[in-house]
Amino acid sequence: MNFDKKTEDYALYLPAISAFYTRQLAKYEDEVDTMRCPDGFENGLQGLNFLDEEKGYYYYPYGLYSAGHAQLDLTKTDIHERMIQKRDRNKTVILGDSGGFQIAKGVIKLDWEDAIKPDSKAREALCEKMLRWLEYTADWSMTLDFPAFAAIPPYNKKTGLTDVKETIDMSMYNLDYFVGNRVPGATKFLNVLSGADDASAQEWFDLVTPFSDPAFVKEHYGDEARTLEGYAMAGINIGQMEQLLKRLLQLRERGLLKDKGWIHCLGTGKLHWGCYLTSIQRQLRKHDSPNIQVSYDAASPFVNTAYGQTYTYNFFDKKRFGYFMDKAIDNKDLKGSILPMPFKGPIMDRLKVGDICVQGHGDLNKAGKESRTSWDTLSYSLYMGHSIHNHIEAIIEANRLADVEKHRTVCDWREYRTGEKRTSSVNERSPHVPGIILMFDQFVEELLDPANPDPYKMLEDNKLFLDEITQNGWVADKSNSFGSFFEQDEYIEGDRDDDMNHEIMTGEFDGEG
Question: Rounded to 5 degrees, what are φ and ψ at 242?
Fold first, then answer.
């Protein structure tokens, strides 16, 4: 895939890059003379680095990287995470996630009893570490919020929190620290807007948005350069379309969209939402901030590989956009096979089946036992590289199709009938694109037009229509979770070695192949 600047007119999908992937690429570079390398890889294993325009087997200059799994020691991160830290910063953009999700999940340890205190030293030390890592690493970054689900079962058993308000209070303390101690210009910050329901989302919004107001920041911190430059939508604000649109209208109403550069929607990989967010971005650029970028992320290409799954092919039709997902090729009988790999793409086109299935019957792993899988560590990296490309291509193709059909298909969102069965054709308007995608484009054009006399009433009157768009199965305690908004045909957990699964999912590994 050659990166096409046209895609910048679309809302951007950001691969939520796995720490396992970045650290393995560093290892492959350090041990180039001893690592196995597929014969078809003319640029070696560094061709798996899609941020490298010259050596990458495909080029995509965007990604999200989380402090929650990163090497936070600034004396070591350049060594272990070169893909991120040594990239060409004139040609790439990395959005830094501050790690709040991993903190709430317990991946990063925190003394929660102490952290709730206004003068908590543990929380202040954590803020300092995350702030400096973000400034060192990322072009754009998120402030450190503690997600609302930290106070909701089952996560509150670890945190001890009993009220969503406690997560809001701690997030406010963090926000004050970030704004007061940031180095203006080192990285640009997104103000995180979260909440578990309408009431808590509104409270959160009212409390944090002043930090996006230059006048407020100058008055309270003495320097308007400390003002937050964009927004990150989390919790119910990305779980429910009605809430997302409501927040955008409120930001406009308070004059807080002007001159903002980025809005990120946390944790969605659905192709439909890629099209919805493109429609939103175009209206925001037209009416509010001409250079604003809307983006969204998913770690699914990495996480699903950990479970032995792979993207096979994408599908686009009048009913649904999506990805076919199935068990990856894993068979000890295929060790040494010269058959070409299926599932076309710049990675698979360079591989033979034997490049993936490298362990045969009787072969022992590093623990001296016969593995349950024919894969080695590199096999995982190869499948990840393929799946990232497939996901990016699916997003771009979905937007291309939607653009064409918007021009040649006449539709009116008022004609959409809610509650129809999936097999119904009543809402179909195109042979290639689900009707709701085309109708939403028209809906949001009218909603976000500043001439709209009452956009909030329009939201309320069309709640059922927007509920059809809302992420299927969204619940508060799953917001921002890996894969919770990822759409695939079927999910089947593969038979992985437990140690490898843990390494890929958590980033906690010893670096051995």
Answer: -55, -40
